[in-house]
Amino acid sequence: MKKLFLLLLLILVAGAWIGEKMIKDSGYVLIAYDQTTIETSLWVLLIVSLVSFIIGHWLVNLITHTRLPTAKLQTWREHRNQRISRRKTLKGLTLLSEGNWAQAQKQLAQAAEKSDLPLINYLSAARAAHEQNDEQATDDLLQKARSSTPEAEVTVAISQAEIQLSRGQLEPCLATLLRLRSLAPKNTYVMKLLKDIYLRLDDWQELSKLIPTLSKHQALKDEELTELSRQCFSQLLDDSVNKHPVEASEDDRLKALGKAWHDLPKDQSRDGDLVQHYTELLVSLGAESRAEQNLRDLIKRNWDEKLVNLYGRVNGDNAKKQLDNARNWLKSHAESPALLLTLGRLSLRNQHWGQAVKYFEQSLELEPRSETLAELARLLRHLGEPDRAQALLQQNLNLVASNLPELPMPEETKETA
Questions:
Q1: Other Cβ atoms closer than 10 A to 310
Q2: Which of 61, 130, 196, 381 is the most buried (most CB within 10 A)?
Protein backbone atom coordinates (compact mmCIF):
# COMPACT_ATOMS: atom_id res chain seq x y z
CA MET A 1 0.00 0.00 0.00
CA LYS A 2 2.82 2.34 0.89
CA LYS A 3 4.63 1.55 -2.36
CA LEU A 4 1.51 2.34 -4.40
CA PHE A 5 1.04 5.60 -2.52
CA LEU A 6 4.65 6.60 -3.12
CA LEU A 7 4.34 5.73 -6.82
CA LEU A 8 1.21 7.89 -7.24
CA LEU A 9 2.89 10.69 -5.37
CA LEU A 10 5.93 10.44 -7.65
CA ILE A 11 3.69 10.51 -10.75
CA LEU A 12 1.87 13.62 -9.49
CA VAL A 13 5.12 15.41 -8.74
CA ALA A 14 6.56 14.48 -12.16
CA GLY A 15 3.33 15.56 -13.90
CA ALA A 16 3.29 18.88 -12.08
CA TRP A 17 6.92 19.50 -12.95
CA ILE A 18 6.40 18.64 -16.66
CA GLY A 19 3.21 20.80 -16.77
CA GLU A 20 5.08 23.72 -15.37
CA LYS A 21 7.83 23.29 -17.98
CA MET A 22 5.29 23.08 -20.82
CA ILE A 23 3.59 26.30 -19.73
CA LYS A 24 6.83 28.11 -19.21
CA ASP A 25 8.29 27.16 -22.63
CA SER A 26 6.63 24.84 -25.16
CA GLY A 27 9.78 24.67 -27.32
CA TYR A 28 9.96 24.57 -31.09
CA VAL A 29 10.96 21.75 -33.48
CA LEU A 30 11.31 21.99 -37.27
CA ILE A 31 11.86 18.92 -39.40
CA ALA A 32 12.52 19.47 -43.12
CA TYR A 33 13.12 16.93 -45.84
CA ASP A 34 13.11 17.79 -49.52
CA GLN A 35 9.98 19.96 -50.01
CA THR A 36 8.31 18.75 -46.84
CA THR A 37 8.57 20.48 -43.47
CA ILE A 38 7.07 19.57 -40.13
CA GLU A 39 6.77 22.15 -37.35
CA THR A 40 5.70 21.24 -33.85
CA SER A 41 6.45 21.93 -30.25
CA LEU A 42 9.05 19.91 -28.40
CA TRP A 43 6.55 18.47 -25.99
CA VAL A 44 4.20 17.30 -28.72
CA LEU A 45 7.12 15.54 -30.48
CA LEU A 46 8.08 13.80 -27.24
CA ILE A 47 4.50 12.65 -26.62
CA VAL A 48 4.11 11.41 -30.24
CA SER A 49 7.44 9.55 -30.01
CA LEU A 50 6.40 7.89 -26.74
CA VAL A 51 3.04 6.87 -28.12
CA SER A 52 4.69 5.56 -31.34
CA PHE A 53 7.12 3.51 -29.30
CA ILE A 54 4.31 1.99 -27.23
CA ILE A 55 2.25 1.18 -30.33
CA GLY A 56 5.28 -0.28 -32.14
CA HIS A 57 6.16 -2.44 -29.16
CA TRP A 58 2.57 -3.68 -28.99
CA LEU A 59 2.56 -4.56 -32.70
CA VAL A 60 5.84 -6.49 -32.44
CA ASN A 61 4.45 -8.51 -29.54
CA LEU A 62 1.22 -9.10 -31.45
CA ILE A 63 3.06 -10.40 -34.52
CA THR A 64 5.34 -12.59 -32.40
CA HIS A 65 2.47 -14.16 -30.54
CA THR A 66 0.45 -14.83 -33.68
CA ARG A 67 2.98 -17.67 -34.39
CA LEU A 68 2.09 -19.41 -31.14
CA PRO A 69 -1.12 -21.06 -32.35
CA THR A 70 0.80 -22.58 -35.29
CA ALA A 71 3.43 -24.05 -32.96
CA LYS A 72 0.72 -25.37 -30.66
CA LEU A 73 -1.03 -26.94 -33.61
CA GLN A 74 2.21 -28.63 -34.67
CA THR A 75 2.80 -29.93 -31.14
CA TRP A 76 -0.77 -31.18 -30.95
CA ARG A 77 -0.36 -33.03 -34.23
CA GLU A 78 2.87 -34.65 -33.02
CA HIS A 79 1.27 -35.79 -29.77
CA ARG A 80 -1.74 -37.12 -31.67
CA ASN A 81 0.50 -39.08 -34.05
CA GLN A 82 2.43 -40.52 -31.14
CA ARG A 83 -0.78 -41.60 -29.41
CA ILE A 84 -1.98 -43.29 -32.59
CA SER A 85 1.43 -44.91 -33.09
CA ARG A 86 1.51 -46.24 -29.52
CA ARG A 87 -2.01 -47.59 -29.82
CA LYS A 88 -1.13 -49.40 -33.06
CA THR A 89 2.13 -50.66 -31.55
CA LEU A 90 0.30 -52.10 -28.55
CA LYS A 91 -2.28 -53.69 -30.81
CA GLY A 92 0.44 -55.05 -33.11
CA LEU A 93 2.41 -56.59 -30.23
CA THR A 94 -0.77 -58.14 -28.86
CA LEU A 95 -1.56 -59.65 -32.26
CA LEU A 96 2.04 -60.86 -32.51
CA SER A 97 1.76 -62.69 -29.18
CA GLU A 98 -1.51 -64.24 -30.37
CA GLY A 99 0.08 -65.51 -33.58
CA ASN A 100 -1.93 -63.24 -35.89
CA TRP A 101 1.11 -62.55 -38.05
CA ALA A 102 -0.46 -60.68 -40.98
CA GLN A 103 -2.38 -58.15 -38.89
CA ALA A 104 0.52 -57.79 -36.48
CA GLN A 105 2.88 -56.93 -39.34
CA LYS A 106 0.42 -54.39 -40.74
CA GLN A 107 -0.18 -52.60 -37.43
CA LEU A 108 3.49 -52.56 -36.42
CA ALA A 109 4.74 -51.36 -39.81
CA GLN A 110 2.17 -48.54 -39.91
CA ALA A 111 2.99 -47.47 -36.36
CA ALA A 112 6.74 -47.41 -37.11
CA GLU A 113 6.39 -44.50 -39.55
CA LYS A 114 5.24 -42.13 -36.78
CA SER A 115 6.78 -43.80 -33.76
CA ASP A 116 9.41 -42.14 -31.60
CA LEU A 117 10.97 -45.63 -31.21
CA PRO A 118 10.65 -47.17 -34.69
CA LEU A 119 13.28 -49.84 -34.00
CA ILE A 120 10.90 -51.89 -31.84
CA ASN A 121 8.15 -51.72 -34.46
CA TYR A 122 10.36 -52.71 -37.39
CA LEU A 123 11.97 -55.62 -35.55
CA SER A 124 8.61 -56.95 -34.37
CA ALA A 125 7.11 -56.51 -37.84
CA ALA A 126 10.08 -58.37 -39.32
CA ARG A 127 9.42 -61.23 -36.89
CA ALA A 128 5.77 -61.33 -38.02
CA ALA A 129 6.82 -61.33 -41.69
CA HIS A 130 9.30 -64.14 -41.01
CA GLU A 131 6.55 -66.25 -39.43
CA GLN A 132 4.65 -65.87 -42.71
CA ASN A 133 7.72 -67.05 -44.66
CA ASP A 134 7.86 -63.70 -46.45
CA GLU A 135 11.63 -63.39 -46.80
CA GLN A 136 11.59 -60.21 -48.89
CA ALA A 137 9.37 -58.32 -46.44
CA THR A 138 11.46 -59.60 -43.54
CA ASP A 139 14.71 -58.37 -45.07
CA ASP A 140 13.14 -55.00 -46.00
CA LEU A 141 11.86 -54.44 -42.47
CA LEU A 142 15.22 -55.35 -40.98
CA GLN A 143 16.88 -52.84 -43.28
CA LYS A 144 14.39 -50.17 -42.20
CA ALA A 145 15.17 -50.98 -38.59
CA ARG A 146 18.87 -50.58 -39.31
CA SER A 147 18.32 -47.27 -41.12
CA SER A 148 15.99 -45.86 -38.46
CA THR A 149 18.42 -46.51 -35.60
CA PRO A 150 22.00 -46.94 -36.84
CA GLU A 151 23.36 -47.12 -33.29
CA ALA A 152 21.34 -50.31 -32.68
CA GLU A 153 23.30 -52.37 -35.21
CA VAL A 154 23.98 -55.14 -32.69
CA THR A 155 20.28 -55.50 -31.86
CA VAL A 156 19.26 -55.63 -35.52
CA ALA A 157 22.04 -58.07 -36.42
CA ILE A 158 21.04 -60.43 -33.59
CA SER A 159 17.46 -60.51 -34.91
CA GLN A 160 18.82 -61.10 -38.40
CA ALA A 161 21.00 -63.99 -37.18
CA GLU A 162 18.07 -65.57 -35.34
CA ILE A 163 15.93 -65.41 -38.47
CA GLN A 164 18.73 -66.80 -40.66
CA LEU A 165 19.24 -69.67 -38.23
CA SER A 166 15.51 -70.39 -38.25
CA ARG A 167 15.52 -70.42 -42.05
CA GLY A 168 18.43 -72.85 -42.08
CA GLN A 169 20.70 -70.30 -43.76
CA LEU A 170 23.70 -71.49 -41.79
CA GLU A 171 26.54 -69.93 -43.75
CA PRO A 172 24.97 -66.42 -43.92
CA CYS A 173 24.08 -66.74 -40.23
CA LEU A 174 27.67 -67.64 -39.39
CA ALA A 175 28.90 -64.57 -41.29
CA THR A 176 26.44 -62.37 -39.39
CA LEU A 177 27.50 -63.79 -36.03
CA LEU A 178 31.21 -63.44 -36.74
CA ARG A 179 30.62 -59.78 -37.58
CA LEU A 180 28.61 -59.45 -34.38
CA ARG A 181 31.48 -60.88 -32.33
CA SER A 182 33.71 -58.09 -33.58
CA LEU A 183 31.04 -55.52 -32.62
CA ALA A 184 30.11 -57.07 -29.25
CA PRO A 185 32.84 -59.52 -28.17
CA LYS A 186 31.37 -59.94 -24.65
CA ASN A 187 27.78 -60.53 -25.68
CA THR A 188 26.92 -63.96 -24.26
CA TYR A 189 23.81 -64.39 -26.40
CA VAL A 190 25.91 -63.99 -29.55
CA MET A 191 28.24 -66.68 -28.17
CA LYS A 192 25.28 -69.03 -27.65
CA LEU A 193 24.03 -68.47 -31.19
CA LEU A 194 27.52 -69.07 -32.51
CA LYS A 195 27.67 -72.29 -30.50
CA ASP A 196 24.40 -73.42 -32.08
CA ILE A 197 25.72 -72.68 -35.57
CA TYR A 198 28.91 -74.67 -35.02
CA LEU A 199 26.83 -77.59 -33.74
CA ARG A 200 24.59 -77.44 -36.81
CA LEU A 201 27.62 -77.27 -39.09
CA ASP A 202 29.50 -80.01 -37.19
CA ASP A 203 32.42 -77.60 -36.97
CA TRP A 204 33.99 -79.14 -33.88
CA GLN A 205 37.35 -77.44 -34.36
CA GLU A 206 35.87 -73.93 -34.18
CA LEU A 207 33.56 -74.97 -31.37
CA SER A 208 36.54 -76.16 -29.34
CA LYS A 209 38.03 -72.66 -29.70
CA LEU A 210 34.76 -71.08 -28.54
CA ILE A 211 34.34 -73.26 -25.43
CA PRO A 212 36.95 -71.40 -23.30
CA THR A 213 35.18 -68.12 -24.10
CA LEU A 214 31.82 -69.60 -23.14
CA SER A 215 33.36 -70.74 -19.87
CA LYS A 216 35.08 -67.43 -19.15
CA HIS A 217 31.89 -65.37 -19.61
CA GLN A 218 29.66 -68.01 -17.97
CA ALA A 219 27.45 -68.11 -21.04
CA LEU A 220 26.23 -71.62 -20.22
CA LYS A 221 25.37 -73.51 -17.06
CA ASP A 222 28.15 -75.72 -15.71
CA GLU A 223 26.45 -79.00 -16.56
CA GLU A 224 25.55 -77.77 -20.04
CA LEU A 225 29.12 -76.62 -20.66
CA THR A 226 30.48 -79.95 -19.42
CA GLU A 227 28.22 -81.91 -21.76
CA LEU A 228 29.05 -79.61 -24.69
CA SER A 229 32.79 -79.98 -24.05
CA ARG A 230 32.49 -83.75 -23.80
CA GLN A 231 30.54 -83.93 -27.07
CA CYS A 232 32.91 -81.59 -28.89
CA PHE A 233 36.19 -83.23 -27.88
CA SER A 234 34.74 -86.71 -28.35
CA GLN A 235 33.88 -85.77 -31.93
CA LEU A 236 37.38 -84.38 -32.44
CA LEU A 237 38.82 -87.72 -31.34
CA ASP A 238 36.51 -89.52 -33.77
CA ASP A 239 37.43 -87.16 -36.60
CA SER A 240 41.13 -87.72 -36.02
CA VAL A 241 40.58 -91.41 -36.83
CA ASN A 242 37.85 -91.18 -39.45
CA LYS A 243 39.19 -88.32 -41.53
CA HIS A 244 41.82 -90.57 -43.07
CA PRO A 245 41.03 -92.42 -46.31
CA VAL A 246 40.12 -96.10 -46.16
CA GLU A 247 43.53 -97.18 -47.37
CA ALA A 248 45.34 -95.32 -44.55
CA SER A 249 47.36 -97.53 -42.20
CA GLU A 250 46.55 -98.17 -38.55
CA ASP A 251 49.77 -96.40 -37.57
CA ASP A 252 48.68 -93.21 -39.30
CA ARG A 253 45.34 -93.34 -37.52
CA LEU A 254 47.05 -93.97 -34.19
CA LYS A 255 49.36 -91.01 -34.69
CA ALA A 256 46.44 -88.74 -35.55
CA LEU A 257 44.48 -90.01 -32.53
CA GLY A 258 47.48 -89.49 -30.27
CA LYS A 259 47.90 -85.90 -31.49
CA ALA A 260 44.20 -85.17 -30.99
CA TRP A 261 44.40 -86.54 -27.46
CA HIS A 262 47.54 -84.55 -26.72
CA ASP A 263 45.85 -81.34 -27.94
CA LEU A 264 42.92 -81.71 -25.54
CA PRO A 265 42.78 -79.27 -22.62
CA LYS A 266 44.20 -80.84 -19.47
CA ASP A 267 40.87 -80.89 -17.66
CA GLN A 268 39.28 -82.73 -20.59
CA SER A 269 41.98 -85.39 -20.71
CA ARG A 270 40.92 -86.38 -17.18
CA ASP A 271 37.21 -86.60 -17.98
CA GLY A 272 36.05 -90.18 -17.40
CA ASP A 273 33.77 -90.35 -20.43
CA LEU A 274 36.42 -88.93 -22.77
CA VAL A 275 39.07 -91.28 -21.41
CA GLN A 276 36.72 -94.19 -21.97
CA HIS A 277 36.02 -93.07 -25.52
CA TYR A 278 39.73 -92.60 -26.21
CA THR A 279 40.42 -96.05 -24.79
CA GLU A 280 37.74 -97.60 -26.99
CA LEU A 281 39.30 -95.95 -30.04
CA LEU A 282 42.72 -97.28 -29.07
CA VAL A 283 41.30 -100.78 -28.66
CA SER A 284 39.54 -100.53 -32.04
CA LEU A 285 42.91 -99.71 -33.59
CA GLY A 286 44.61 -102.66 -31.89
CA ALA A 287 46.53 -100.57 -29.35
CA GLU A 288 45.24 -102.09 -26.09
CA SER A 289 48.68 -101.98 -24.47
CA ARG A 290 48.86 -98.26 -25.10
CA ALA A 291 45.33 -97.88 -23.69
CA GLU A 292 46.35 -99.82 -20.55
CA GLN A 293 49.39 -97.61 -20.02
CA ASN A 294 47.38 -94.42 -20.51
CA LEU A 295 44.71 -95.56 -18.06
CA ARG A 296 47.32 -96.55 -15.49
CA ASP A 297 48.99 -93.14 -15.65
CA LEU A 298 45.67 -91.30 -15.36
CA ILE A 299 44.52 -93.38 -12.39
CA LYS A 300 47.80 -92.73 -10.57
CA ARG A 301 47.43 -88.98 -11.04
CA ASN A 302 43.72 -88.77 -10.29
CA TRP A 303 41.70 -91.65 -8.85
CA ASP A 304 38.48 -92.22 -10.77
CA GLU A 305 36.16 -95.18 -10.20
CA LYS A 306 35.03 -95.14 -13.83
CA LEU A 307 38.61 -95.33 -15.10
CA VAL A 308 39.42 -98.08 -12.61
CA ASN A 309 36.48 -100.10 -13.91
CA LEU A 310 37.68 -99.52 -17.46
CA TYR A 311 41.20 -100.68 -16.53
CA GLY A 312 39.85 -104.16 -15.88
CA ARG A 313 38.36 -104.33 -19.39
CA VAL A 314 41.63 -103.56 -21.18
CA ASN A 315 44.00 -106.35 -22.09
CA GLY A 316 47.57 -105.12 -21.59
CA ASP A 317 50.76 -106.76 -22.83
CA ASN A 318 51.53 -108.36 -19.46
CA ALA A 319 48.48 -109.67 -17.59
CA LYS A 320 50.48 -110.46 -14.43
CA LYS A 321 52.03 -107.01 -14.27
CA GLN A 322 48.64 -105.44 -14.88
CA LEU A 323 47.19 -107.43 -11.96
CA ASP A 324 50.11 -106.44 -9.72
CA ASN A 325 49.58 -102.78 -10.56
CA ALA A 326 45.92 -103.02 -9.59
CA ARG A 327 46.77 -104.85 -6.34
CA ASN A 328 49.05 -102.00 -5.33
CA TRP A 329 46.05 -99.67 -5.44
CA LEU A 330 44.37 -101.73 -2.72
CA LYS A 331 46.68 -100.13 -0.15
CA SER A 332 44.83 -96.83 -0.40
CA HIS A 333 41.52 -97.91 -1.95
CA ALA A 334 40.65 -101.18 -0.25
CA GLU A 335 36.95 -100.28 -0.06
CA SER A 336 36.59 -99.47 -3.76
CA PRO A 337 33.96 -101.75 -5.39
CA ALA A 338 35.23 -100.73 -8.87
CA LEU A 339 38.79 -101.76 -7.97
CA LEU A 340 37.62 -105.14 -6.56
CA LEU A 341 35.63 -105.76 -9.74
CA THR A 342 38.69 -104.93 -11.81
CA LEU A 343 40.88 -107.19 -9.69
CA GLY A 344 38.40 -110.02 -10.25
CA ARG A 345 38.60 -109.56 -14.01
CA LEU A 346 42.39 -109.30 -14.00
CA SER A 347 42.52 -112.45 -11.85
CA LEU A 348 40.51 -114.22 -14.56
CA ARG A 349 43.05 -113.09 -17.16
CA ASN A 350 45.69 -114.74 -14.99
CA GLN A 351 43.46 -117.81 -14.44
CA HIS A 352 43.27 -117.25 -10.68
CA TRP A 353 39.70 -118.58 -10.46
CA GLY A 354 39.29 -118.76 -6.71
CA GLN A 355 40.80 -115.33 -6.15
CA ALA A 356 38.50 -113.90 -8.82
CA VAL A 357 35.44 -115.28 -6.98
CA LYS A 358 36.58 -113.61 -3.74
CA TYR A 359 37.14 -110.26 -5.42
CA PHE A 360 33.73 -110.37 -7.14
CA GLU A 361 31.99 -111.30 -3.87
CA GLN A 362 33.71 -108.48 -1.98
CA SER A 363 32.77 -105.98 -4.67
CA LEU A 364 29.16 -107.17 -4.73
CA GLU A 365 28.97 -106.87 -0.94
CA LEU A 366 30.25 -103.28 -0.99
CA GLU A 367 28.06 -102.19 -3.89
CA PRO A 368 25.45 -104.52 -5.41
CA ARG A 369 25.67 -103.99 -9.16
CA SER A 370 24.29 -106.01 -12.05
CA GLU A 371 27.69 -105.94 -13.78
CA THR A 372 29.44 -107.54 -10.80
CA LEU A 373 26.61 -110.02 -10.31
CA ALA A 374 26.81 -111.13 -13.95
CA GLU A 375 30.60 -111.64 -13.74
CA LEU A 376 30.33 -113.73 -10.58
CA ALA A 377 27.41 -115.83 -11.83
CA ARG A 378 29.17 -116.52 -15.12
CA LEU A 379 32.34 -117.62 -13.33
CA LEU A 380 30.44 -119.92 -10.94
CA ARG A 381 28.70 -121.67 -13.83
CA HIS A 382 32.05 -122.31 -15.51
CA LEU A 383 33.42 -123.61 -12.21
CA GLY A 384 30.65 -126.23 -12.17
CA GLU A 385 28.52 -124.50 -9.52
CA PRO A 386 25.30 -123.69 -11.39
CA ASP A 387 23.14 -124.06 -8.25
CA ARG A 388 25.23 -121.51 -6.41
CA ALA A 389 25.05 -119.19 -9.41
CA GLN A 390 21.27 -119.63 -9.58
CA ALA A 391 20.88 -118.93 -5.89
CA LEU A 392 23.02 -115.85 -6.23
CA LEU A 393 20.88 -114.56 -9.07
CA GLN A 394 17.71 -115.29 -7.11
CA GLN A 395 19.00 -113.39 -4.10
CA ASN A 396 19.86 -110.40 -6.25
CA LEU A 397 16.86 -110.49 -8.57
CA ASN A 398 16.36 -106.76 -8.11
CA LEU A 399 19.71 -106.16 -9.85
CA VAL A 400 18.74 -108.29 -12.83
CA ALA A 401 15.38 -106.59 -13.36
CA SER A 402 15.06 -103.36 -11.42
CA ASN A 403 12.14 -100.94 -11.20
CA LEU A 404 9.48 -103.66 -11.44
CA PRO A 405 5.98 -102.40 -10.56
CA GLU A 406 4.24 -103.61 -7.41
CA LEU A 407 1.91 -106.41 -8.61
CA PRO A 408 0.04 -109.21 -6.81
CA MET A 409 1.81 -112.58 -6.88
CA PRO A 410 0.57 -116.13 -6.10
CA GLU A 411 1.68 -117.65 -2.86
CA GLU A 412 4.87 -119.70 -3.10
CA THR A 413 4.38 -123.48 -2.93
CA LYS A 414 6.74 -125.70 -1.03
CA GLU A 415 8.28 -126.99 -4.25
CA THR A 416 8.85 -123.45 -5.50
CA ALA A 417 10.36 -122.42 -2.19
A1: 22
A2: 130
